[in-house]
Amino acid sequence: MKTGWLVVNHFLATNKFTEHYDWLRKAAENVDIALILKTGVDLMNEIGQGLLSSEPLPDFVLFWDKDIRLASALENLGLKVFNNARAISLCDDKSLTHLNLAGQIPMPKTICAPMTYPAVGYPDVSFVKRAVEVLGLPMVIKECYGSFGFQVYLANTLEDAETLVKKLAGTPFIMQEFIDSSKGRDVRLQVVGKQVVAAMYRYNDQGDFRANITNGGKMKAYEPTEEQKELAVTACSILGLDFAGVDFLFGEHNEPILCEINSNAHFKNLYSCTGVNVAEAILDHIAKNI
Q1: Residues 257 and 109: beta-carbon distance below 8 Å
Q2: Contact 93, 230 (CB under 8 A)
């Protein structure tokens, strides 16, 4: 029997997260893999002090966190890590996602905010007006790090944008054109091992421009187009992902426009919507590649 470590965040211990860990461990049993739960706290001293020799190393690591330093440390031990540290970092930082896919995958026009420091802030916000001249209004402002749509904002006026930017000073963020044709709706494609294994259409009929289920959006099963599938797989390949949730907006003529990519996307809603168990697809992929 193969063994693997399921590495998770020690501090995300609510049912919303732990139930996904249970699904992954159950899926591992189905392919004759013993998946052992480890947290960043469990591994912190062992890696830092070189004490891993006291415990046999696993055959692989299923990394269900965004701690790229820990993922890199595990890779330095010679372990195969799914997803790898570089892929996670490129997804976790929305500006890096855009920079690495620019010119290869259709995306909204995007401007990375100039760097500042929390103690300095933005005493000069004239760059916001320049961004509005390029991107138009309303304008989407996204923190580079965030999940479930919580760190995504819509600025309807220049004054709104300047106020948001001042509040975010010291926090990395990007500014993007608003895709009006996709207001309150998008589609999530789950990619595993260069295949789209499931997809769902998400929509918000309560006026929110975001379609995230956590923010009150609804969902239904969706049959993606060949173009959507091809772009999703291509984007994952460019970023080096073994699996990911890929979100597309709808352009004016329903052409796919990449919104973002999640390296360890939650899959309970996808299962409820489509009946596809993504945990099983992920562990099947790992079993074939270790």
Answers
A1: no
A2: no
With cut-offs at 50, 70 and 90, classify the pLDDT of residue 50. Answer: low
Q: Which two tokens stand for residue 118?
A: 């929390």
Residue reference for tokens 């289920």? 213
Q: Tell me what pLDDT residue 49 has.
A: 60
The residue behind tokens 């895709």 is 179
User: Would you call 256 helix, strand, or coil by DSSP?
Assistant: strand
Q: Distances from the Cα of 156 to the Cαs of 137, 140, 178, 181, 234, in angstroms? A: 6, 9, 10, 16, 33
- For residue 149, is pLDDT > 80? no
d(CA 81, CA 154): 36
Entry pTM: 0.93
The phi, psi pair for 20, rounded to 5°, reads -70, -35
